[in-house]
Automatic annotation (TrEMBL):
Name of the featured protein: GPN-loop GTPase 2
Pfam family, any one: ATP_bind_1
Its job: Small GTPase required for proper localization of RNA polymerase II and III (RNAPII and RNAPIII). May act at an RNAP assembly step prior to nuclear import.
Keyword list, A-Z: GTP-binding, Hydrolase, Nucleotide-binding
Listed GO CC annotations: cytoplasm
Lineage of producing organism: Eukaryota, Viridiplantae, Streptophyta, Embryophyta, Tracheophyta
UniProt family annotation: Belongs to the GPN-loop GTPase family.
Protein's organism: Rhynchospora breviuscula
InterPro entries linked to this entry: Gpn, Gpn2, P-loop_NTPase
Subunit structure: Binds to RNA polymerase II (RNAPII).
Keyword GTP-binding assigned: yes
Single Gene Ontology MF annotation: GTP binding
Length: 305
């Protein structure tokens, strides 16, 4: 059996930064990690990429050839990957013996709760290569500071969980920055545990735009609570304890911890034993031309010198 993670989430939620940091963390605790970039718009990778979808198809080429926008182009790329899944399988087979896999997916959310192509790609890999994958759905923690956006994030998380049908962990990323977005209406546990959403109604009513859709919002909250599936873990990618706790949760969800309990204990003892060198500034600021926005990609610091 081969274990790994399918990393998904909206644009800007930190998927590429997560894959970069997670791969280094897992390497430090003794695992051989391969990162697979399946985002054809990700043209500036901060991590060493074992497999890159741009060797098969590029978003820029698709947009130019078929006169598509970025959203339509990404759907086309995922369709193309699904039809050429043999290419990806052949690239993965040499890694199956001893690697832990991280799949860095595109940030277009429609691919994971509406279209079937990304789900089909994942399911085919699971069946043909006997993979044990956990979906890691990243949500930017700043959404907690806005009740309307928080409810939208809950709906997206729920829809994605139902659509993908994988072991699933929702993660509030960039939790270390949450205070910079403004004071939360409730304590953090309220947002991670997804408690009684009726408490948000008062805050929503204070916004004229939200008050207009009061009944709709109430019904959406009822749907979320009726399913009772969504909760969140938190992640500070620069904190070794935060990342370690998430890895333990992932290992339980996909079965890794049960396949090698002794080795797992040894792995985590390595980061608890003493300080580790970590080059925080290895990856500088860069500009992503495909997304037309500037991004800060930081090498995570799990343990200061």
């Amino acid at each position: 059996m081969v274990f790994g993670q399918a990393v998904i989430g909206p644009p800007g939620s930190g998927k590429t930064t997560y894959c970069n940091g997670m791969s280094q963390f897992l390497t430090l605790i003794g695992r051989k990690v391969a990162v697979i970039n399946l985002d054809p718009a990700n043209d500036a990778l901060p991590y060493e990429c074992a497999i890159n979808i741009e060797d098969l198809i590029k978003l820029s080429d698709v947009m130019n050839e078929h006169s598509l926008g970025p959203n339509g182009g990404l759907v086309y790329c995922m369709d193309y990957l699904e039809k050429n899944i043999d290419w990806l399988e052949s690239k993965l087979k040499p890694l199956l013996k001893d690697h832990y896999l991280l799949f860095d997916f595109p940030g277009q959310v429609e691919l994971f709760f509406l279209h079937s192509n990304a789900r089909s790609v994942i399911n085919k890999l699971i069946k043909k290569l006997d993979l044990r994958l956990t979906a890691i759905h990243l949500v930017d923690a700043h959404l907690c500071s806005d009740p309307g956006k928080y409810i939208s994030a809950l709906l997206l998380s729920l829809s994605t969980m139902i659509h993908l049908e994988l072991p699933h962990i929702n993660v509030l990323s960039k939790i270390d920055l949450i205070e910079s977005y403004g004071k939360l209406a409730f304590n953090l546990e309220y947002y991670t545990d997804v408690e009684d959403l009726s408490y948000l109604q008062h805050h929503l009513d204070q916004d004229p735009r939200s008050a207009k859709y009061r009944k709709l919002t109430k019904e959406l909250c009822n749907v979320i609570e009726d399913y009772n599936l969504v909760n969140f873990s938190t992640l500070d990618i620069q904190d070794k304890e935060s990342v370690g706790n998430l890895v333990k949760l992932i290992d339980k969800s996909n079965g890794y911890i049960f396949s090698s309990i002794d080795s797992s204990a040894i792995e985590f003892s390595k980061i608890a034993a003493g300080p580790l060198d970590w080059d925080y500034y290895r990856y500088p600021f860069f500009f992503s031309s495909s997304s037309k926005r500037a991004l800060y990609i930081f090498l995570p610091v799990f343990l200061q010198r």
